[in-house]
Design a protein that fits this description.
By secondary structure, the chain is mostly helical. About 95% of the residues lie in helices and about 0% in strands. The chain is built from 2 helices and no strands.
Length: about 100
């Protein structure tokens, strides 16, 4: 009986570790996507301002579309960061509460 309880506790800690590793990977992916899309958003915004100053309507439209969609991808990446950070915070909090109960 004690052995099955130990293996169950070990299984829970292993699943907690895997869950934390998964959320950590999502966090790193979200941060890297945010940096990538943020960089291209700024770069295209500068090109957009240049196209507006030079009065090139086709280039202006292209850069407006790029800035818009890169902004959307940047925000989606930030949602990944927020979701994974919150999930990691909750898992740490629940582990600490379960240790305090014992």
């Amino acid at each position: 009986m004690a052995n099955s309880q130990e293996s169950q506790g070990l299984g829970e800690s292993l699943s907690d570790m895997l869950r934390k590793a998964f959320y950590s990977l999502i966090l790193v992916q979200g941060i890297s996507f945010s940096v990538y899309f943020g960089y291209w958003s700024v770069k295209d915004y500068i090109a957009l301002e240049q196209a507006v100053a030079l009065k090139k309507p086709h280039e202006e439209l292209r850069h407006r579309i790029n800035v818009g969609f890169e902004g959307v991808w940047f925000l989606l990446s930030e949602f990944l960061v927020l979701y994974s950070a919150e999930a990691l915070w909750r898992s740490d909090r629940s582990i600490k509460e379960s240790v305090d109960r014992q």
